[in-house]
Amino acid sequence: MKFQFVFLALLLLSCGQENKRVEKEQKAKDSVNALFMEASENLNVDEWEAPAETQEKSPMEISILNLYKSMEDKDEEEFLRQFPQDFEQFQSYFGWDTPNDAPHELYEHSVHYIEYLFYLLRTNKYPSYEKNIIRICENGQWEADGVNYFQHHVLNYLREYKKYYLINELSNEKAKSVLFFLFDGPHPKFDADFASHLTTSKKQILEDLFETAFFDDNENPDPFPDDRTNGTYTLSDYMENEHFFIRDIDINNDGIVDKIVSAGPYQGDELLLFTNEGKAYQFALKTTNFSEDGGNQIVDVVAEPDGFFIKTAFPDGGLNEANHHIAFKKNSWILTNSVYRTRSSNQKDAFIYVCDVAQGLNMADTHFFEKLKGMPDEVEKNTVCTKEML
Questions:
Q1: For residues 119 and 228, which has the higher predicted lDDT (pLDDT)?
Q2: How many domains does the chain have?
């Protein structure tokens, strides 16, 4: 009997506690619901913002700061969206501020931005952005450094990937503007192969530009046009020429000092070899000093065992150097390898990529530039290049 009484007391106590728990939970729910209803009544739907994890990413305002951020974050799509859409904007980011005789904000880092742009285009993930590079060329005017570097990359991209339709589909007026920018510079050179891929009307536009638009206003016309035959080159032509410099180097491993003639920076890409035949210097080869219309320029030609190397660098900003090593083998001058050096980024923890690229190319090969291997792209750098601390 006593046991039953105790059991009944415990049961009643338990039920009372359960009722209190349920009552307490219900009061809490009622309180939450009341707050929710109050908030709902005062909520302005137009101002409501979804939680961060559910809302779509809003596009950032187009600005030079956001281009910088997207570059640092390697946000590919945002970088392409933030990249300048016309020449005026491009020049205001990467060009020279002539009125104030000062660089624009990204002038010194233009190489990194332009290389990243074309790296993304080469991934074939963003074909719709190809037309953007053509739009930037419209109404473009040649400048050294960043603008020149962009010009060089556009031309290489069109040639390498046979994207001539990007020009052929333009109106004649726009095509004239684009072609003028692509081929303008201190020493414009007609590219017959490039022209052969253009439609009849666009090819005619390019030919007309070379007849009337470039050389008339060129302050430094090429003193030795490409149509000159090899047999007419003589060392005396270059001895007093301000556009060229000469180096005394044994170029054929016979123990006798020869002559190398190179065009100076922004004076062209000519490199001429003359061998010492005792009484006179005999012309041996006309080739390249690796200066690029939109990129690296010749720095010097330096002797080394078995030959020489040609040092080039991108002027006025960043680190972008190349040493092209040339050796005399089997009566030919062979580009054995190219050593490229570039800075990884503009951050404090940046380092230098050193990329030794095997070449094995005859400097006299008519298809030399088609076979020349450039600096590895962003992905390859991490696997084929070594790293050097700054």
A1: 119
A2: 3
Same domain, 186 and 291: no
Q: Residue 150: inside a domain, yes or no? A: yes
When pLDDT is cut at 50, 70 and 90, the band that residue 332 belongs to is very high
pLDDT in tens, 17-44: 445 444 544 444 443 333 333 333 333 3
Quick one: 210 and 280 in the same domain?
A: no
In this structure, are 10 and 117 located in the same domain? no
pTM for the complete prediction? 0.50
The predicted structure's pLDDT at residue 268? 84
Say if residue 6 is in the same domain as residue 123.
Answer: no
Predicted confidence at residue 51, as pLDDT, reads: 37
pLDDT tens digits for range 235-260:
988 888 888 999 999 999 999 999 99
Does 57 map to a domain?
A: no
Q: Are residues 365 and 276 in the same domain?
A: yes
Q: pLDDT at residue 388 above 90?
A: no
Is the same domain home to 76 and 105?
yes
Burial code (b: 16+ CB inside 10 Å, e: under 16) for 55-79 equals: eeeeeeeeebebbbebbeeeeeebb
- Domain span including residue 34: 2-45
Mean pLDDT of 349-373: 88
Is position 54 within any domain?
Answer: no
- Is residue 123 domain-shared with residue 257, that is, in the same domain? no
pLDDT(182) > 60: yes
Q: Are residues 68 and 41 in the same domain?
A: no
Residue 51 lies in a domain: no
Six-digit token string for 126: 């963003």
